[in-house]
Specification:
Length: 287
């Protein structure tokens, strides 16, 4: 049963990312590489601010070991596989959303193993993740599905427009079914990690991500919304893989990651609503 749920979850992510590619063109994928200043600010928010804050939380506060490890693993996993949908709901621009996802995925292949090695040296631990393992996760959950979608649209744009809606609906249905199944099977473990400041720590983590994205995303709101949600969202699959490889004996770390996914999704709703309203107000203002 657990294997089937994992397969359905991965399939749903692949379908959602493929549909994102079906709505894009090659120029969207290289959007940020044509804007080095914006690329640098985006990477600073996603790759430096969040790991630094996660370390601060771990050092200053007496968090449960499972949550502490989970937040650090999430902080070094800056490839949110589903965030573009939320970004577009918040009024973000599609080219920047897709370009940021592609750039984050490419940089993650080098970033994640390097940062894990630095963390291991700082804490006197033997932790790490091979470049090949990260590259495989990044390719299968982000780059290949998006690239296939972009390629399909380039070859047959009419067909892409017709199938993107049904495929997107199937992907989201599979995703919801997978999440409900995971919650049903893992609910006792999730309850076991709640308490001792768990919810507060996760909300603080999300709030810092949103604030960092707003600050470094630039004026105007739309790019800020993209970077805010992308910074606050992390890749739970990569985070769980990191913890399983490096801390196989530590209980409930996966449950702590799942708790983050649930709490962070709920915590982002007010920001998404506010950001959409901000964009509508800006558009309605007379020039």
């Amino acid at each position: 049963m657990a294997t089937l749920i994992q397969v359905l979850l991965k399939l749903s992510i692949v379908l959602v990312e493929f549909c994102l590619g079906l709505k894009s063109d090659p120029h969207d994928a290289i959007y940020l590489f044509q804007r080095p200043g914006q690329l640098l600010r985006s990477l600073l928010s996603m790759y430096i601010v969040m790991p630094s804050f996660a370390l601060l939380l771990a050092i200053v506060f007496d968090l449960r070991p499972a949550l502490e490890i989970a937040l650090i693993a999430l902080a070094v996993s800056p490839i949110p596989p589903l965030v573009p949908k939320n970004v577009l709901k918040a009024g973000g621009e599609h080219p920047y959303a897709l370009g940021l996802l592609v750039a984050a995925a490419l940089f993650a292949v080098v970033f994640i193993p390097s940062v894990l090695e630095l963390l291991g040296g700082a804490f006197g631990l033997r932790i790490g993740m091979s470049v090949s393992a990260i590259a495989l996760l990044v390719l299968t959950t982000a780059l290949l599905p998006i690239g296939a979608g972009i390629g399909a649209r380039y070859i047959a744009p009419g067909l892409a427009d017709r199938i993107v809606g049904p495929l997107s609906s199937i992907g989201m249905l599979l995703l919801v079914a997978s999440i409900v199944s995971i919650l049903f099977t893992a609910w006792p473990d999730i309850l076991s990690v709640i308490g001792s400041g768990t919810i507060i720590a996760i909300i603080a983590f999300v709030a810092i991500g949103i604030a960092s994205g707003e600050l470094l995303g630039g004026p105007g709101g739309r790019d800020g919304a993209v970077l805010a949600l992308s910074t606050a969202s992390r890749h739970p699959g990569i985070a769980i893989a990191i913890t399983r490889v490096n801390f196989p004996g530590l209980k409930n770390v996966s449950a702590a990651v799942l708790t983050y996914v649930i709490v962070s999704a709920l915590a982002m709703i007010p920001y998404i609503v506010w950001s959409r309203r901000r964009v509508r107000v800006a558009v309605s203002r007379p020039l």
